[in-house]
């Protein structure tokens, strides 16, 4: 069987989900062929870099405008531009990979493949993995056979948008196998705080937080900067007592030993933390999907949300990381979520 996974670099969560799905599919059926394609690079090769740089600029500098477009994008399903050209390119894409099954981890792929199926009158299975708790309109496409979602909240939201209940499976948001195979670390001498900024940059007020912990040796602090080399060099020089890490494939190891993680409320990061039993501390979520994830974190008591920027974050973090009772309750809630989302629905795809 040839499985084609379509994704895009609008934040790193969609790519991470695609890799996690591929990893699990290969684990369950090593004889299958699984291909990951960036749908924006493939369909719009001349415009891809401009599209991605525009997206990054919009989300970081003009989040209100981004939220408006994100909220309304799905309302214009019938006016997809360049329809004939897109259909021709999708024809070539599906033929090139001889796809038997298509998986989407990005809304535009679900929309385009739904359009393709309707236009060509074909029944190639399309499975959509929603990578956040909230599901805006653009995720919904008539051609999707099944939606894999992170929570019952997502399922309810899709049903309110007209999706049939039998087409929605609660499976959690995909994470790599490394997060599913973690063993709890016991007997740590010091508290461990992990700080991660997400794929689009670091969290608000990061330098004030690091200044406090650079002068506090009672808590070990690790900051992961990812591929942001400028930030890595700056933080390493400015905060010598902080363990500053660049890009790493061992995020699961850092998360596993951490007592608390300060991060953005991305869907993938949230479920990685759930699997690592690492309570979350979220500062000022402002992108629409991040707000939805933060509400989920708060409702299920698996972390703390600071909705405003100008609160005393450092004092708050120190109090929380030393509150064993509160942290243990959050971990218990994470265990419950893990148990509720351990359904093995990939057999549905493998047997398609």
Describe the 3D structure:
- The chain is α/β, with parallel strands linked by helices and 352 residues long.
- Helix content is 47%, strand content 15%.
- A six-stranded parallel sheet has the order 2-1-3-4-5-6, with helices on both faces. A six-stranded parallel sheet has the order 9-8-7-10-11-12, sandwiched between helices.
How does the helix and strand content classify structurally? alpha/beta
N-to-C SSE series?
A: EHEHHHHEHEEHEHEHEHEHEHEHEHHH
Report the β-strand fraction as a percent range: 15-25%
Number of strands: 12
Tell me, rounded to a whole number, the average pLDDT. Answer: 87
Radius of gyration: 21 Å
**Strand sequence of the main sheet, in spatial order?**
2-1-3-4-5-6
The number of distinct helices, counting runs of at least 4 residues, comes to 16
How many angstroms separate the termini? 9 Å
Helix content: 40-55%
Shape: globular
Sheet bearing the most strands, described?
A: 6 strands, parallel
Query: Which stretches are low in confidence, meaning pLDDT under 50 for 5 or more residues running?
Result: none
Keywords, separated by commas or semicolons:
alpha/beta; six-stranded parallel beta sheet; 47% helix; 15% strand
